[in-house]
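Tokens as discussed.
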């Protein structure tokens, strides 16, 4: 699943905000029991690993000039909730970029 979020920020500012706020991602998962780890394989990509309620989901955040793209590897068993997850990513992802 790919969820693009448009922005008008310089890439350096997007990187800074994502690095400073990546710890907030766990708060976006309902139930408050999520474990989120992040890594930066390069300056324009943040890898995510989310573990909650016995399930694991991996993804990436790709930083582009005019958008940030959240890519999430949803297992087939969760594909029915893709619209709900995409909406939450749009909402919460935008909050990560807001000052």
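Sequence:
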């Amino acid at each position: 699943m790919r969820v693009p979020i448009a922005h008008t920020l310089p890439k350096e500012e997007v990187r800074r905000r994502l690095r400073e706020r990546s710890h907030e991602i766990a708060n976006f998962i309902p139930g408050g029991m999520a474990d989120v780890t992040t890594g930066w394989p390069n300056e324009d990509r943040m890898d995510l690993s989310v573990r909650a309620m016995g399930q694991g989901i991996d993804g990436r955040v790709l930083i582009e000039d005019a958008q940030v793209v959240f890519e999430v590897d949803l297992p087939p068993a969760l594909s029915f909730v893709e619209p709900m997850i995409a909406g939450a990513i749009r909402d919460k992802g935008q909050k990560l970029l807001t000052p």
